């Protein structure tokens, strides 16, 4: 079984997230998603609309997602890759190069982001209504 992992905040889930999850899942047979905790979001300088439990529950309902774990630190990826026997770490390409250090433990793939959609854009557009 080829196991994939990806990480993110996944706030107000949209087709940009779904496109990433679908492509990541299709690179293997099993997709683990590390969802950023509210505390880790603060470290990333992000304020999610939905709390961690909500974002986790939404992702668990996505057909491309096989398992959801908590993301609480940048450096947990190495342990996750080992403990979950991960073959490929997948991230959107605005992270290009940032996770190459994990190539020591698994393949690292950066996928093109979906242009024109983002959680911050959704929030901005709603404010204009
Ligand atoms: N994404 C995408 N296209 C978009 C928006 C997001 O492909 N239009 C991808 C991102 O590249 C990322 C995933 O969807 O791979 C989740 O996006 P975010 O929730 O914004 O996650 P991010 O803040 O990039 O957190 O340790 C890694 C971090 O937790 C990643």
UniProtKB/TrEMBL annotation:
Alphabetized, the UniProt keywords read: Nucleotidyltransferase, Transferase
EC assignment: 2.7.7.39
Entry's Gene Ontology molecular function annotations = glycerol-3-phosphate cytidylyltransferase activity; metal ion binding
Q: Which GO terms describe its cellular component?
A: cytoplasm
Provide the top EC class: transferase
Q: GO biological process annotations for this chain's record? A: teichoic acid biosynthetic process
Please give the Pfam families that the UniProt record associates with this protein.
Answer: CTP_transf_like
**Keyword Coiled coil set for record:** no
Name of this chain's protein = Glycerol-3-phosphate cytidylyltransferase
From which source organism is this entry? Oceanobacillus limi
């Amino acid at each position: 079984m080829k196991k994939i992992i990806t990480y993110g905040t996944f706030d107000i889930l949209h087709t940009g997230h779904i496109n990433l999850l679908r492509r990541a899942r299709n690179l293997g047979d099993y997709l683990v998603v590390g969802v950023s905790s509210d505390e880790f979001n603060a470290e990333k300088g992000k304020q999610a609309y939905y709390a961690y439990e909500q974002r986790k529950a939404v992702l668990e309902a996505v057909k491309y997602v096989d398992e959801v774990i908590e993301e609480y630190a940048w450096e947990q990826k190495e342990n996750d890759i080992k403990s979950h026997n991960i073959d490929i770490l997948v991230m959107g390409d605005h992270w290009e190069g940032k996770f190459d250090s994990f190539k020591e433990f698994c393949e690292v793939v950066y996928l093109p982001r979906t242009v024109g959609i983002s959680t911050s854009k959704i929030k901005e557009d709603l404010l204009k209504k």
